[in-house]
Amino acid sequence: MHAAVLSSLLWLAAAPPSSGSDVAVVEHCVVSLIEEAQVPAKEAGQLVSVSVKEGDNVSKDDLMASLATDDAEMRHKLSQYEYRIAQEQATNDVSVRAAIASQKVAEAEHAVAKEIHKTAPGAVSVSELRRLELTAKRGGLQTLVARMEFKVAGMTAEARELQVAAALEDIEKRKIYAPQDGVVVQVYRHVGEWVQAGSPLLRVVRMDKLRVEGFVYTKVLSPHDIEGKPVTIQVRLGRNLIGTFTSKIGFVSPLVQADGAYRVWAVVDNRKDGNHWVLRPGLEATMTIDAKFLEKQTASLR
Asked: Same domain for 184 and 112?
């Protein structure tokens, strides 16, 4: 919670239910945000577009702004060409087939020379036989090299494909999308400005669900008895207008202050009046807790 919201929280005591009462009133509560996001730039660059303004409603993944992508797009195109080259090398086995053919020729020549030397000693010199034998062995090694290079070409193609995906992701990083449904309440930077990675560009707050918070005392209400209990919330909307909402206690803090007070809150579904949200963070409210369950506790407090 922001310091401004915290400073607006007032310490309170829920009055013990009087005899016959079935409610406990928690006054001076405050309406606060549940979710908000300072949306940052993921990369450094020049801001070239901002498609939203303060007060606009946005949905999750809506494009809100973008940075210049010229360099990233060039890298993407280059990676695509490199991938195509690698893919061609990975699917073209001509060098392997040529190496196999050369190996077979060399082995055949060696076999013929051995047969001639066997039937007509001296027709083929010993040195020639050795040369042909080495040529056949070299042909076998060249085939192994060609197969290995073909395999490496396949791995290189896979690496180039990943580089294409990385280059495309680099382009996407220069686009700023809404992280959640909400309202744009602040636009920090404007078109033409240079922004650094991590610097906030916009602030988006969620308005369809808000939190109503207050403090109660352990001597008045037991934390174990409050959690999950139904509440009626009345919010001062201004000009003597009161908005009524229903919810339940969704959180009871395990931390107790020095004076015995602990924080509780309930989530409220907000609604619109025309184009404007009825509930707004910072408004003061009162929570009325269904205290029928407190009858036994009330008796012990008398």
From this structure: no
Q: What is the pLDDT of residues 183-216, one digit of tens each?
A: 999 999 999 999 999 999 999 999 999 999 999 8
- Which 8-state DSSP code applies to residue 228? T
Q: Record the tokens describing residue 88, joined without a space.
A: 């061609």
Please tell me the distance from the alpha carbon of residue 210 to that of residue 222, in angstroms, as a whole number.
Answer: 25
Residue 230 sits in which domain range?
3-34+206-301
Q: How far apart are CA 90 and CA 143, in angstroms?
A: 16
Contact partners, residue 46, CB within 8 Å, separation at least 6: 67, 68, 192, 193, 194, 195
In a domain, 146, yes or no: yes
d(CA 244, CA 212) in angstroms, rounded, equals 12
* Interval 139-183: pLDDT, tens: 889 889 888 988 998 898 899 899 999 999 999 999 999 999 999
